[in-house]
Write a structure and sequence with these properties.
Strand 2 and strand 3 form a beta hairpin. The protein has a domain of 55 residues. Helices cover 31% and strands 17% of the residues. It is α+β, with helices and mostly antiparallel strands. It contains two helices and three strands.
């Protein structure tokens, strides 16, 4: 939907659907290949989110999002600087 303007990982806002193509909402997606995110970075983000929830800090509910290869190619076409971040 759009690229976020803040954050060092250059997250993108995506409208997401489930396995039955039913819309489930909008999510701020941090691409695994992006600066500092990777698998360990994603785990740290998840743990940080859960800790924040535990201490009563309002944070969005984390979710794992699968990126379709065609979508990744479209993102790269619009924002070539994200080419290393998008899984293909």
């Amino acid at each position: 939907m759009k690229r976020m303007t803040t954050g060092r990982t250059f997250p993108i806002l995506c409208g997401c659907v489930d396995q039955d193509d039913q819309r489930v909402g909008e999510y701020v997606v941090k691409l695994l290949g992006n600066r500092g995110v990777g698998a360990s970075g994603a785990l740290l983000e998840f743990v940080g989110s859960r800790l924040a929830q535990h201490f009563g800090i309002l944070v969005p509910e984390p979710a794992a999002v699968r990126i379709d290869p065609g979508f990744a190619e479209a993102v790269i076409e619009v924002s070539p600087e994200l080419s290393e971040a998008c899984p293909r």
